[in-house]
Specification:
The protein is α/β, with parallel strands linked by helices and 181 residues long. The chain is built from 9 helices and 5 strands, in the order βαβαβαβαβααααα. One of its GO terms (biological process) is phosphorelay signal transduction system.
Length: 181
């Protein structure tokens, strides 16, 4: 059911359930979709198929999403790339944009979110400055990013953060701070 009017899409995510669900939703909307579970596989597909668009997870085993974005843009500078992440930060979004990403979306995102991201910001979004995260939100994102980099090991994450293990456990027991609290 692929139409000639819809661009081809490469989905790169190591979460197979999320990747296949998003691929199915895009195919149901008439897009030709290729999927890859990691960076090396994605780049092989990109060289062979030359997708017009790519959706790339930021955090993956092996080659990270930012490296994949840079290489996709080197292979074909016209490829539009949207970066997805569960650990978003302003610094990472800026870095992804510098490497050529069209947009940056938090997970979970659905097919409609992805398609809107490729369409670009709305007139309301262009006219308004993005809100800076609260200090509590920035701390929570940083802790979770370090924890993810430590493969979920609390002791290792506490060592990297320079805090006591119990202090880290207390911080993790709290929910993510509300953005507008």
């Amino acid at each position: 059911m692929t139409t000639k009017n819809n661009p081809s899409v490469l989905l790169v995510d190591d979460d197979s359930v999320f990747r296949e669900r998003l691929a199915r939703a895009l195919r149901n909307r008439g897009y030709e979709v290729w999927t890859a579970g990691g960076g090396a596989e994605a780049l092989e597909l990109a060289r062979r198929e030359s997708p017009e668009r790519a959706v790339v997870d930021l955090r993956m085993e092996g080659m990270g999403g930012l490296a994949v974005v840079a290489e996709l843009k080197r292979i074909d500078p016209a490829t539009e790339v949207v970066v997805l992440t569960g650990y978003g930060s302003i610094a990472t979004a800026v870095e992804a944009t510098k490497l050529g990403a069209t947009n940056f979306l938090p997970k979970p995102s659905d097919a409609d979110d992805v398609l809107r991201a490729f369409a670009g910001p709305s007139a309301e979004e262009v006219g308004s400055a993005p809100e800076a995260p609260t200090l509590a939100r920035a701390e929570w994102e940083h802790i979770n990013r370090v924890l993810a980099d430590s493969s979920g090991n609390i002791s290792e994450a506490a060592r990297r953060l320079g805090i006591h293990r119990r202090s880290l456990q207390r911080k993790l027991q709290r929910f993510a701070p509300e953005e507008h609290a």
